[in-house]
Amino acid sequence: MTTQASHNAMSSSTADSASGAWLAYSAGLPVMVGVLAVMFGWHIAVGAKSLPLSTVLNALVQYDPTLFDHMIIRDLRLPRAIIAVLVGAALSVAGALMQGVTRNPLAEPGILGLMAGASFAVVMAIGVFQTVPTVWLPWVAAFGAMVTAVVVWLIAQWAPGGATPLTLTLAGAAITAFLGALISVAHLLNQETFEQLRVWLAGSLSGRRVDVLSVAAPWLCLALGLAMVLSRKVTVLAMGDDVARGLGVRTGWLKVQVLLCVVVLTACSVALAGPLGFVGLVIPHVVRLFIGSDYRWIVPYSALVGAAYLLGVDIIARLALRPQEIATGIMTAMVGAPLFIHLVRQRAS
Amino acid sequence: MSESISSRSIHSSSRLQGESLTVGYDAAPILNDVDFQVPDGQVTILVGPNGSGKSTLLKALARILTPTEGQVLLDGQDIHRSKTREVAKKLGLLPQGPVAPEGLTVRELVAQGRFPHQSLLRQWSSEDERAVNDAMTVAKVIDFADRPVDGLSGGQRQRCWIAMVLAQQTDLVLLDEPTTFLDLKVQVDLMELLVQLAHQMGRTLVVVLHELNLAAAYADTLVMLRDGAIMQWGAPSDVFTSANLKAVFDLDAHVIRDPHSKRLICVPTSAPEPAQHVEVGVRIA
Lengths: 349, 285
Fold this sequence. Notes:
heterodimer; A: mainly alpha; ABC transporter involved in vitamin B12 uptake, BtuC; globular; B: alpha/beta; Rossmann fold; 2 domains; six-stranded mixed beta sheet; four-stranded antiparallel beta sheet; 11 helices; 12 strands
């Protein structure tokens, strides 16, 4: 809604529309931050026991360890809300970067196999070593994502015509299916160990992995910062490799940087919340509907909208069948798909 | 080759030069030991049959392809060892068939041309704004500056890309088949624009063209390539001859002078000459 407003503001400024759009987009950012803050508070207030927003605010500002409600907020709900924000932002930005660099509107960590690779590595590590120190999870996931990224790229490279958007998508889909099958096999062979992973593999924010969060959060923030720095070059690269080289972009080095960035974002997300689909694919498209094709805007807006979206979805996941909760990974697509179709149809007409 | 020698002596100044360029794989190089000096302030047009290496030469000059032997010098510096962003302030490139991201407006596209002039610390400035507006005015795209590029006609789109290269404000501009797949009228308009850039604004242009008559009409220097080597090189009046067309393109054609424009035109003589048309569809370079 806020992005719609900024879009209207942009269309109405005709005299100097370049700076007009710039002003509108800049003004939209603090508005989105405000929306995100409200969602954040609401997310914490909602749960098996509803808490008033004033209590939430008090617990955040003036923490009183003797109050049970404050303890719930600090120890249980706040980490979950922070994870939702970070994971939502990370996946959306990863998707946006991949769509820009591969010039493939279907690119996202899930479809290009990164997420399956990260999940597979985590599943295997837990299957082999039984217990993996949780602080290692992001690294295990990063290793899996990185290896899968390279394998997908190599397969696409071997295909006739090289690594085109089409061959990358096909290779990614094939690898995702293959790793999914392997995960199923592992699951069938060792039901006990994998029962605990079942919820995680559906994509869930309920694990309250505070220890993982403390490891992953700095890296996530670093990668988000790098994404912002790279965004200008990604816009240029989205116009084609030769155009970008002609404009003085070192395209090979840029792709390596983007890949590292995407791997870190994906791996940390998977370690925190399991493989959450849909967010990385759809949020950049939603943002693009309102903001256009400049990644200097797409990246920050994707981060904010993705974070707000995952908070919202997680609120629904916990409210819909209260006191039961639905795995967030299921809800991202269940809520997102109709919403996305509605947006696209509305824009088309 | 007397023509090429004379053209070299006439145009002594050349900021962009290729020295014994060999590009491609060892067994079958696409370019073989080519020496080439781009005359400053002129429209130089590269023509040749498919696979002759004309696009490859352009890409090597633009540092998109790295030669296996030889070097490209820009102002005396090896272009492949220079900082690519510094090169991009002097040398612009419009590759073949560029595609704009969906939804990108004309103004946003043209603004990308300012990339080499910006950095993290030096963001958008009034100078950038002016360069973009000037480029859009010259390329006549300013009237639809805020429309998405993907909604424009082929000719309008190509003018947007030319505006982007102009906004880069480089003295040298290389264009790879900028007129392909456009209506003849639009091709002519584009060539007029390019000639204006060179003759009135002092830019140096190197253009790969497929259309021989357009090349003959608008080139100051015409370069004919075949099998990875430069066969002919000089003013169209010197090199655009029936004999050269036969030797370079294996084309039987009369070359006549249009009495009104005084331009040279080639008219194929042998009964339907399909090669030209068939090959357009299967261009490799």
